[in-house]
Structure to design on (299 residues):
């Protein structure tokens, strides 16, 4: 006990000396406060250690990984291309799954629920277009077509069936990764879809219900691809304003490329046709030739 008192007195003298002229009572209060602070820090440290211990639980780690890592399914039968895609996407931190047929691709889409599908149209069992058609019956996962088919009709068909983007072979790694980032960005909350307002947009007999992504004309449902809906919703949220081709390409696809305007025109032609708009009809959308598009103002 005597030793304890001597040690305490020694500590008090050090506190008085360090703080410059404190009385013994003030030094004692200061020492007590320091003790409380250290106790609080120790409790925080204990809680942090407990949190880290829980965080290291294997199941929690699996759930966290699933929430943060983007899963990409590449449906490609050419092993050299699939190996290249796997290596390229892996270096960017994506979890890559591979399928070499249409049937296997459909099975993995249902079982693994990927964030993006990269699809080659030339598959051994079925045409890749059949996969797009089948997926779009009940699934909005972004589909990026990667194909040697380069005609305008090939692109129009794939986009009209529900593909979100189309890249022809040969392709550059930089362009592919940019398209992948864009597809992932606009398929998740915080992307184009995530920024859409709640409620509805009404223009003549055109009705857009943002919450359900439902589009009707005169009460009749209009079935749009994801890209077509994104274009329509983008213009509706900027009704009355002229949107340049470049601005729309950037907003919808996240990239600007030499063929971007053509791709936009193809999707716009399909969109106008589905809305029942005939050439020269400006009921909903006005085409400012050479500049961009403008949605008429909401009623």
């Amino acid at each position: 006990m005597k030793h304890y008192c001597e040690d305490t007195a020694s500590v008090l003298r050090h506190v008085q000396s360090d703080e410059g002229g404190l009385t013994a009572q003030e030094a004692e209060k200061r020492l007590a406060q320091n003790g409380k602070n250290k106790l609080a820090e120790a409790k925080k440290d204990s809680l942090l250690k407990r949190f880290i211990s829980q965080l290291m639980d294997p199941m929690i780690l699996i759930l966290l990984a699933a929430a943060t890592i983007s899963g990409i399914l590449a449906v490609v039968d050419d092993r050299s291309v699939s190996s290249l895609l796997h290596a390229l996407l892996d270096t960017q931190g994506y979890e890559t799954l591979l399928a070499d047929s249409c049937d296997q691709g459909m099975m993995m889409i249902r079982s693994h629920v990927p964030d993006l599908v990269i699809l080659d149209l030339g598959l051994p069992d079925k045409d890749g277009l059949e996969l797009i058609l089948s997926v779009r019956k009940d699934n909005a996962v972004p589909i990026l077509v990667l194909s040697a088919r380069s005609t305008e009709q090939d692109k129009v068909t794939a986009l009209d069936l529900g593909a979100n983007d189309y890249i022809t072979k040969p392709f550059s790694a930089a362009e592919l990764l940019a398209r992948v980032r864009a597809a992932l960005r606009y398929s998740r909350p915080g992307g184009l879809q995530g920024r859409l307002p709640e409620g509805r947009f009404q223009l003549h007999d055109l009705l857009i219900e943002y919450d359900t992504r439902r589009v009707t004309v005169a009460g009749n449902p209009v079935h749009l691809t994801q890209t077509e809906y994104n274009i329509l919703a983008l213009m509706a949220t900027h009704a009355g304003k002229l949107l340049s081709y470049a601005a729309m390409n950037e907003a919808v696809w996240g990239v600007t490329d030499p063929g971007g305007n053509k791709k936009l025109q193809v999707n716009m032609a399909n969109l106008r046709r589905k809305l029942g708009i005939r050439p020269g009809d400006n009921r909903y959308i006005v085409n400012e030739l050479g500049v961009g598009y403008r949605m008429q103002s909401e009623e």
